[in-house]
Structure formats: structure tokens, C-alpha cells
Design a protein that fits this description.
about 25% helix; 14 strands; 8 helices
Length: about 325
Amino acid sequence: MKKNIAFAIGLILLLVISCRKEYINIDIEIPDFNFPKTLVFEDSLSSYEIFEGTPSDLSPSEGFELLELSSVLFTDYSHKQRLVKIPEGTQMTKSNDEKIDFPNGTILTKTFFYYNDERDTTLGKRVIETRLEIKENDIWNIATYIWNQNQTDAILKVDGLDTPITWIDENGISRSTVYHIPSENECMTCHQSNSTMTPLGPTLRNLNRNVHRNGSTLNQLTHLQNVGVLNNFSANQIGQMVNYDDPNTSLEERGRAYLAMNCAHCHNPGSWERSADREFDFRYDTPFNEAGILFEEEKIKRVLQDGEMPLIGTTMLDDEGVDLIIQYLNSL
């Protein structure tokens, strides 16, 4: 009887936590964006032949290149694998603003997963979802695929889903949450720029870092050029975003990188009009005196600590990230 009561209490607490952000932001209504689409997505992820061998091993098929970012979006402590595939005979090209121009037919993938035990990754993982962005007729189309229980495939889902997830972190502590897989409209909330869909993470600045490929360490942009998927230019021309988890970089750069990756997709002049109307512009290359940070330190601290922001995309507080931002703001 006591075990049943304890289980019930635990379940109630878990449900309360999972609804907390929705409750806090109950007055914020996300509109139906209805952005244009130029293709129809397949029902199953396997139709795109992204992975070879055992699907859950996430081994990229030929033609898909791994993309690694210096700083990443926090999503409830999940891990992410990012891949890109472009049509044969085409290239990604550097644009004047240090962003990437992707050719039509480009496929970008982002797969979210959890290791069962962070202390020993050989104990397996659970793959939760794979998000696709496909560019066709100069329009980015987005879709989310949810992996089945057997981890053999993923099925297209446009209206989102909540799923319980449990794992052991690197300190041996059991963690859990009700992970929220976003709806199509929620994806559009963050992935819009001037009312069109756009990729967020893979910018030249964020890709300009060293990676390990084929037993060697080299600059990632140089590697992408070597395999012919990125046009030729000097990586030295490109700025770099720091890894905000790296304590050996400056607190200022780390703070700005965290805000850029976790807040700037909404807080910039070209974003969803409701958030664009705010006084913030958290993009990494925005001059500090134009970012709206100064004199708003306490407000930024409060909305992060209370879990009010980010608006969507998380169900848990990023303890380390919030601590970083508090340190950064206190240093100003």
C-alpha cells in the first residue's frame, strides 16, 4: 500500500513539473503560422535512408556528413546528432553575413537521444526523435519523426507528443522528465526569420572548430571543403563561437554564446513578432550595447531561474546554464 501511495505521489509530482512551463506561460498564445510548404514528407524516417546498419546506432549513410557545433541548444540534457546531405554536384556556400547558403535538395537532420547511463555509454541509449529540414524550391520544410519502442524506425508526427524519459547522469544520479516532442507549429515558432523557415544551429561561426575525422584532427570547415560539400574560402576569414561549457574561455564570450544558442532564435529583430518586439537582441555578433542586456540583468535572471524562458523546447531547468548566465550578468 505504501509503495502504491509513493508511486502515485511521484507520478503527480512528475506531471506537475512537466506542466509547469505551460502553466507559467498560459497567457502566451502561439498563433498558427501556416508558412508555405513545397514538399510532402514521407511517413517513415527510414524512407530517407539516413542511417546504415542498425538504425539506433545512428551510423550515417553515404552522402550524409556529420556536423558538430561549438555551442548547442539545451534540450533537457539530451544528446544530439546533426547531419547534412546535399544533392550531388552542388555545394553549400559562404554568404556575406557568415551564414551558409544551402542548395535546394539539402537535408538537415537532428536526432535527439539519451544514454541509459552517462558513465558508460556502452550500456546503450534511447533515441527519441529526429527532426528534418529539407530545402525545396527555396523553401525550408520541417518535420518531426518519433522513434518506435523497438528503435527500428521513426514515424512522422505533426502534432507533438510527451514521453517519459529516465537516465543516469555522469554523477550517478537518476534523472527523469516528461520529454516534449514539439508540434510542427512549435518548430515554426523558433525556426522563423522574417516569416520564413530557416536552420538555426549550423552557421559558419558555430561550425568553425576542430573535429576528428578519419583518425585526424582538422578544422571542420576545411573538412567539409575537402569532401566537396562546402565552397572554398579560408576558415581564418570566419569568426568563432566559443563552447559555453568551456571554463578556459572568457566569461563574457561564454555568456553571449549561451544566450545566442538558447535565446536568440526568438530574441532578435527578425523572429516571431511577439518576441521580436521585446528589447533584446541576443545574437552572438550583436554589439553588447545593442543587445539589451545592460540594466536588464535582474529580469533576465528571473525569467531563467523561474523557468519562464525559453518559452518552449524544455521541461527542465538547465542548472549549469542558468548558473553561467548569473555569473556573467553579475560580472557586468
